[in-house]
Amino acid sequence: MQLRNPFSLNTRNLFLYVYSCFLCRRSDRGLELHHIVGRDSNSAFNACPLCTVCHAIMKHTQEEERELFFIVFKFLFTEKYKPDENDYSFLKKYWDRLVTQEVVEYLNKI
Fold first, then answer.
1. How many CA atoms within 13 Å lie on the side-chain side of 30?
2. Other CB atoms within 10 A of residue 53 CB
3. pLDDT by residue (tens digit) across 42-98?
4. Distance from the CA of 52 to the CA of which of 6, 26, 73, 109 falls in 20 to 30 A?
5. What contacts 24+ positions apart, CB below 8 Å, involve 100-104?
6. How many whole angstroms separate alpha carbon 86 and alpha carbon 90?
7. Domain ranges of the chain
8. Closest C-alpha to 18, from 99, 98, 76, 102
9. Residue 55: count of CB within 10 angstroms of its CB
């Protein structure tokens, strides 16, 4: 996986063994870690592995951000990820912007 964006080593390692794009699921393209809501946070919840094609077409709409956040949110819970202070800060700042009913329902199931 090509990891050019400035994420921490811990965040990068979470996605080290991801071999397909979280959006299109293709594995035959290079992968990059995408900042879901911009580069002001390197939280694992703000990182999404995307192929170079999907990464290039991101428009940073709220709908895109919510979709990617939900995918990453489920992945991190599946991986039993333990959030750190940086993650809590990110979630507090962007919770209302990113959380949909789908996320709430997912949380209620776990």
1. 9
2. 13
3. 999 999 999 999 999 999 999 999 999 999 999 999 999 999 999 999 999 999 999
4. 73
5. 100/66, 100/70, 102/70, 103/69, 103/70, 103/73
6. 6
7. 9-109
8. 76
9. 20
